[in-house]
């Protein structure tokens, strides 16, 4: 009897791939989205331990060592970070403790257990003066304490040499958390005119797109690939373009969702330059990150930022 040829064997996860996942920063945007996304993937792991700042304070290296050794995970996912970009200029020690020292200690403890490590970094590791889209091998030259501390965190993880993935993402926002989406909606409810920076370009990336992509990577990751990956929603815009898209999409959904009307209309959102809106920390003008490596190594692609924005707005509560 001839056995019929099958092109692809169906992927059936029989035993969970990970015994125990330790997830940090679960009250943050990405941590919260990851907790939700992982909850729908129970076949991927046997146990998920989610910790907030009160349960694992990343500014305390000994606490990190104690908690990791007590939990004994075989995968650590670390979205927790010091993310107050402007405040970091006046709190460099705390920013470095959380963004640079802590990932290194987490990676060391993971390595002792033979565990894998997932970490997050940022477009702010680049100077933003490249003509064209950044690839992972491009030179880094952070402009701010936040960017420098995040780059130091990447280097600390790399120095440990364990199987690890470092996802550089950008302009993170979502229905949950404090972010640009909520700031624009608040301002557009309060004011008729908005002025938004139009000379920084990048990809707004939703926390749910990140979480979904990471879950897909986790299902495929054999530990062979290690290193830095760009992970952002497809397409690009400016902060001004993002703000107008938020107001436009909100206006489309508003009648059906019974949301309050916005005072600001798209036509009343004016473009300004970075120089018109000085901030303590300098930002890269070009934050565009190429995600070809992610798609080649893991066959994972993130949706266009406009589709992701609509999904986040739809996740906002109705009135
Ligand atoms: N937000 C962005 O636009 C952006 C852009 C590029 C890259 N990233 C990177 O993406 C990752 C996720 O960022 P996110 O947007 O999810 O950040 P987020 O919403 O600001 O969340 C950060 C989380 O880290 C926690 N945290 C801060 N200090 C801590 C400490 N000492 N010990 C333990 N936890 C602590 C916070 O705890 P509390 O809830 O208690 O404050 C919060 O839950 C980070 O690595 C970030 O650098 C973010």
TrEMBL record:
CDD domains the record matches: dTDP_HR_like_SDR_e
GO cellular component: cytosol
Gene Ontology molecular function terms on file: dTDP-4-dehydrorhamnose reductase activity
Enzyme nomenclature, EC number: 1.1.1.133
Start and end residues of each RmlD-like substrate binding domain: 20-314
Catalytic activity line of the entry: dTDP-beta-L-rhamnose + NADP(+) = dTDP-4-dehydro-beta-L-rhamnose + NADPH + H(+)
UniProt xrefs under Pfam families: RmlD_sub_bind (PF04321)
InterPro entries membership: dTDP_dehydrorham_reduct, NAD(P)-bd_dom_sf, RmlD-like-bd
Co-factor: note: Binds 1 Mg(2+) ion per monomer.
Keywords noted in UniProt: NADP, Oxidoreductase
Top class in the EC scheme: oxidoreductase
A GO BP annotation: dTDP-rhamnose biosynthetic process
Pathway of action: Carbohydrate biosynthesis; dTDP-L-rhamnose biosynthesis
Cofactor dependence: Mg(2+)
Transcription found in the keyword field: no
PANTHER family attached to this UniProt entry: DTDP-4-DEHYDRORHAMNOSE REDUCTASE, METHIONINE ADENOSYLTRANSFERASE 2 SUBUNIT BETA
Role of this protein: Catalyzes the reduction of dTDP-6-deoxy-L-lyxo-4-hexulose to yield dTDP-L-rhamnose.
Recorded family membership: Belongs to the dTDP-4-dehydrorhamnose reductase family.
The name this protein goes by in its record: dTDP-4-dehydrorhamnose reductase
């Amino acid at each position: 009897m001839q056995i019929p040829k099958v092109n692809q064997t169906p992927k059936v996860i029989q035993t969970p791939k990970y015994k125990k996942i330790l997830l940090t920063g679960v009250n943050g945007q990405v941590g919260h989205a990851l907790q939700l996304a992982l909850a729908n993937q129970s076949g991927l792991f046997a146990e998920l331990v989610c910790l907030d700042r009160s349960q694992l304070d990343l500014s305390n290296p000994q606490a990190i060592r104690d908690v990791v050794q007590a939990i004994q995970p075989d995968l650590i996912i670390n979205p927790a970070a010091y993310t107050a970009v402007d405040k970091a200029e006046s709190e460099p020690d705390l920013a470095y403790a959380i963004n640079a020292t802590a990932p290194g200690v987490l990676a060391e403890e993971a390595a002792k257990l033979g565990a894998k490590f997932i970490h997050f970094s940022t477009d702010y590791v680049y100077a933003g003066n490249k003509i064209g889209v950044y690839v992972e091998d491009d030179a880094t030259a952070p402009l701010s304490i936040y960017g420098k501390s995040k780059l130091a965190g990447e280097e600390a993880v790399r120095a440990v040499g364990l199987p690890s993935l470092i996802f550089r993402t950008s302009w993170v926002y979502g229905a949950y958390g404090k972010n640009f989406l909520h700031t624009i909606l608040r301002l557009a409810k309060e004011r008729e005119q908005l002025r938004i920076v139009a000379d920084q370009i990048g990809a707004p990336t939703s926390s749910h797109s990140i979480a979904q992509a990471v879950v897909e990577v986790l299902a495929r990751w054999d530990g062979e690939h290690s290193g830095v990956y760009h992970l952002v929603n497809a397409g690009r815009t400016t902060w001004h373009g993002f703000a107008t898209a938020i107001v436009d999409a909100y206006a489309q959904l508003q009648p059906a969702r019974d949301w309050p009307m916005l005072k600001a209309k798209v036509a009343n959102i004016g473009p300004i330059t970075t120089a018109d809106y000085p901030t303590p920390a300098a930002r890269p003008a070009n934050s565009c990150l190429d995600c070809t490596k992610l798609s080649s190594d893991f066959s994972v692609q993130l949706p266009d930022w406009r589709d992701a924005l609509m999904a986040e707005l739809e996740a906002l509560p109705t009135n």
